[in-house]
User: Which sequence fits this backbone?
């Protein structure tokens, strides 16, 4: 997505402009050791990293030397300013630098708390140590009305740093995007499965199959344009409200984020229509969910046993004997029963280095069996049944009593001294009562009205 070019120093600042100017700074006005118009809220470079140089300026009376000898980047940002959504801006820098100095441009989306960066420029390789104009473009995403423009830099010389004489930000020509299918973006024969469209601006379309409702990714979503492998992708964009079943057209950059192929730096999300049926979920063994072709795809885990109902952070673990898989709660929260079996439908996503499945609603989780519950000669008696307030059980006081909802969630549990239970707060419906004592398990269906 980077557009980079150089102009001879003899071309003046005014002559190089070709669009409407949003921001200009010759870095000649400083207050309390900081350049005016800069040091925005997202600046993490200190005053010691940005130093006024009053000798050798071509434009104005001063330049800024920026220093960061570490390999971790520091940000030097403008103050927040109004921008136009979908507008492309060219960030022009008249600068030079010593060998190894790296700099890139970008913006902070103050409207939706989002970030975008271009690729790094090797400043010395591009300028040869002479004051030269370099530029990169950024396109403001849909819904963004305020932004800070960013200069991000690292690995500078400890004495010379990067010297910036002037900066101009003006409207420029938008970068064209290529229309491709999700399958084309995802399918790769490379050993590392890197997308053939990595780092390119694309336009693609699909049906919304999942939307994060909680957590850091809240509002971001998945789209899919067909059934089965290679047809789903994650869209890292929370500025547009979408719902399950929406047909959307997305323009943004394809990237590989810790091996996860996703669309970032989204320029537009156009909701074309709503209410479409979901693609068919493909049955996948729990151990195979990690395979690249299921990335971002709607899958179904079938007859998977709950091996751990609480692995922390609202997640639980299931296994169909092909390998354990975590089910996350950032789209829908569910409490499973240990050793019960489930069909679980959801989208796959790489989170904290692990591929997980994210169900989206109650109907995505189907109870297929209660493990360890067997019929036996000692029938469990519950009365009255149906009931609407109190029930009595003919069990010993030391028995473990557990009541499950029809979807497998634990509604009630008690260990010892329980013969009567108040069910008046239970929702009307069918429940499973399980009593365990001395390695004997009894079960009976309870109807609450």
Assistant:
């Amino acid at each position: 997505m980077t557009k980079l070019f150089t102009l001879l120093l003899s071309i003046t600042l005014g002559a190089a402009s070709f669009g409407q100017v949003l921001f200009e700074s010759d870095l000649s006005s400083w207050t309390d050791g900081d350049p005016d118009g800069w040091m925005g809220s997202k600046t993490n470079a200190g005053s010691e990293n940005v130093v006024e140089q009053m000798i050798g300026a071509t434009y104005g009376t001063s330049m800024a030397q920026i220093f960061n000898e570490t390999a971790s980047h520091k940000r030097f940002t403008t103050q927040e300013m109004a921008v136009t959504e979908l507008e492309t801006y060219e960030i022009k820098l008249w600068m030079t630098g010593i060998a190894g100095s790296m700099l890139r441009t970008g913006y902070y989306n103050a409207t939706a708390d989002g970030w975008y960066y271009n690729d790094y420029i090797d400043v010395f390789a591009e300028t040869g140590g002479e004051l030269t104009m370099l530029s990169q473009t950024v396109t403001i995403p849909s819904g963004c009305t305020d932004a800070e423009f960013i200069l991000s830099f690292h690995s500078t010389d400890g004495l010379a740093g990067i010297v910036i004489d002037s900066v101009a930000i003006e409207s420029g020509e938008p970068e064209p995007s290529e229309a491709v299918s999700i399958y084309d973006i995802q399918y790769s024969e490379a050993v590392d499965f890197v997308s053939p469209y990595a780092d390119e601006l694309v336009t693609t379309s699909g049906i919304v199959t999942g939307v994060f409702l909680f957590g850091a990714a809240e509002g971001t979503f998945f789209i899919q344009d067909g059934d089965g492998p290679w047809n789903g992708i994650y869209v890292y964009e929370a500025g547009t409200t979408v719902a399950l079943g929406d047909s959307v057209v997305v323009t943004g950059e394809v990237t590989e984020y810790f091996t996860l192929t996703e669309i970032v730096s989204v320029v537009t999300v156009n909701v074309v229509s709503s209410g479409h049926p979901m693609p068919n979920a493909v049955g996948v063994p729990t151990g195979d969910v990690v395979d690249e072709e299921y990335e971002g795809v709607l899958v179904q885990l079938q007859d998977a046993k709950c091996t751990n109902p609480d692995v922390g952070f609202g997640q639980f673990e299931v296994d169909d004997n092909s390998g354990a898989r975590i089910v996350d709660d950032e789209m829908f929260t569910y409490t499973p029963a240990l050793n019960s079996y489930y069909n679980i439908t959801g989208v796959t996503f790489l989170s904290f280095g692990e591929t997980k499945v994210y169900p989206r609603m109650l109907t995505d989780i189907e109870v297929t069996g209660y493990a360890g519950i067997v019929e036996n000669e000692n029938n469990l008696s519950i009365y009255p049944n149906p009931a609407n307030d109190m029930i009595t059980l003919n069990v010993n006081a030391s028995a473990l009593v557990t009541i499950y909802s029809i979807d497998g969630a634990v509604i009630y549990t008690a260990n010892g001294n329980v013969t009567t239970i108040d069910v008046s707060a239970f929702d009307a419906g069918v429940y499973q009562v399980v009593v365990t004592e001395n390695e004997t398990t009894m079960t009976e269906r309870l109807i609450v009205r």
User: Anything to note?
Assistant: DSSP finds three helices and 35 strands in the chain.
